[in-house]
Amino acid sequence: MSVTKRWITLLFVIVLLLSGVGYLRFNEAWNITPLNFAAVRNQVVPHIQVVLPGGEGPHPAVLMFHGCGGVKPALLTRAHEFADRGYAAVVVDSFKGRDIDWQRVCDGEILYGDQRAADVLVGLDFVRRDSRFDASRLFLAGYSHGGWTVLESVFYNGELPRGLLDAPDTSLDGVRGVVAWYPYCGVVARFRGGWQAQLPVLMLLAGEDQITPAEPCVDVARSMASGGQPVDWRVFEDAAHGFDTTHDWVRGYDAEIHAEARAIQNEFFDAL
Known about the structure:
single chain; Rossmann fold; seven-stranded mixed sheet
C-alpha cells in the first residue's frame, strides 16, 4: 500500500471513530423517552420557587428559566429585582426533579432546549391555576440555555415540544413578551428557521460571547424582523457570556453593561 493510500485509510478510520464517539456522546440528547404532561409536571412543579411583590394580587408574572448551570444565587437576585418592580417571579428549576448533572447539559449531552420547552408549558399551567398571578400578563425570561428554551417555546406555540406526549394547553396565551439573555442559537436550535407566533421577542446578546456566540442569534432576529415579526435585539459588543451574573465559572460579569441590559428589558416589559 502506498503512503498516500495509508494516510487516506488512517484518516477514514479517524473520521469513523470520531463519528462513533459523537454519536455515543449526544445520542441521549436526541433519543429521549417521550413523557406525558403529568410526568413532567411532577418533575418540575415541586421545585418551582416564587417571589411575590408587595400588595394584593393577582400580579403580572415573569417565568424565569436558568442556564445550563442550574438555579444560581444570581438568578434569585434577578427574581427579587422583578418583585421590586411589581412582577411575581416564578423560577422554574428544570434540573432538581430530574436529578440532572448540569455539566452534561452544558456539554450538550442531555436536555436540549426543544425538549426543555415542555417546562415552559408546565410553568404556564402552574401560574394559570394560581390566583396569585394574572394569567393575562405573563412574561418569559431565559438565560443562556434558558434563553434557548424560551425561544423554542415560541417556535412550538400551539404544538407539543419534542418528547412531550400531551398537554392541557400548548399555546402561549397570556404571554405578553419574551426576553432571551445570550441564548444558544446554534445548528440544533429548531427556532433558527423562524416561528409563526406574533409575540414580542427581545434578545440581549454578548459580542464577546465564546459559549453562545451572538452572530447566529442576530441572523435569526434580523430574519424574523425583516419578515414583520416583533423581534428586537441588542448586542453589547464588549460583553462576555454571563455578563449579568457573578458565577465563578462564567467570569463575565460587567455591572455597567448589566445595568444597561436590565433597563432595556424593563422598558420592554413595561411597554407590553
